Structure formats: structure tokens, C-alpha cells
Amino acid sequence: MDTLDPIPPEIERLFEASEARRKRLAALPWEEKIRMVIELQRMAAPIQRARGRNVTPWEPDDPPAERQDTDTDTGRDEPG
User: Fold this and answer.
1) Which residues contact 78 (CB under 8 A, 6 or more apart)?
2) Considering the entire predicted model, what is its pTM?
3) Mean pLDDT per segment of 10 residues, for the chain of length 80 residues?
């Protein structure tokens, strides 16, 4: 049976850094995680709008259940 080549040290450091980042993010309070999701939505919104999607990023005082622009069954934006 052939053995796998050893992982180069550079790749090993990438794996370790990725795992450390995952643990740091997992340890964050949920309020910070929500803030990060909202920021990602704000970053993606112009791209989605350029593609013809009607999107509105969450606002901290605007829970998703109160929003009118998403289909509650699929979570996808309504057409048009």
C-alpha cells in the first residue's frame, strides 16, 4: 500500500490557522455573529441588486420575521 506524501509545512500552517479561526469565530457571542452576518449582507446587496434581485439587509432592530421582501417558505427574495 502506498503512503501519502507528507503535508508541506506551509499547508500545515494554513490548516492550523483555519482551525484556530474557526474556534475564535465559534467562541464569539451570538450578537457579534449576527452583526457579522448583517455586514456580509450589506456587502453582498449591491452585487445582488446588480443581478436584478430585490434585497434588503437585516437591520439590528428589524428581525427577519418582520421583513416583507422575502418568501418565508424558502428564504428567497420574491420576484420583481
Assistant:
1) 54, 69, 70, 71
2) 0.59
3) 84 97 96 94 96 91 56 50
